[in-house]
Amino acid sequence: MTSIDLHRKDFYKTMLTIGAPIALQHLIGSSLNLVDTLMIGRLGENAIAAVGIANRLFFCLYSLFMVLIVVVAFLRLNTGEKKIRKIFIESLELCWYLV
């Protein structure tokens, strides 16, 4: 196992390259939930409660699927599989079967 040198600039560039799209996707998802709530707001309390419950369910399922993708990728990489595309497709297939 290799050690990570936190003082190298390419490490931070790589982390930003990986982290920025993930952060942007989470921002878009949160904005979608906010827009849903704002659009339903004039329909009453029950409608807002229903949207809140649906948003929470969506978040829980999304989190579960992200954990599954990471676990599958981690297990496959540790067993010697180095084909990232194959690992990604297997992770998505697992999530699709659970839906």
Architecture overview:
- With 99 residues, the chain is mostly helical.
- The chain has one domain (9-98).
- The protein has helices spanning 9-40, 45-78, 84-98.
- Helix 1 packs antiparallel against helix 2 and helix 2 runs antiparallel to helix 3 (84-98).
- The protein starts with 8 loop residues before the first helix and ends with a helix.
- The mean pLDDT is 77.
Q: Calculate Rg over CA atoms.
A: 19 Å
Identify low-pLDDT runs: none
Q: Helicity level, as a percent range?
A: over 70%
SS content category:
mainly alpha
Domain unit count:
1
Query: What oligomeric arrangement do these chains adopt?
Result: single chain
How are the elements arranged and paired?
Layout: H1 9-40, H2 45-78, H3 84-98
Helix pairs in contact: 1-2, 2-3
Summarize the structure.
By secondary structure, this protein is mostly helical.
Structure keywords:
single chain; 99 residues; mainly alpha; 3 helices; 82% helix; 0% strand
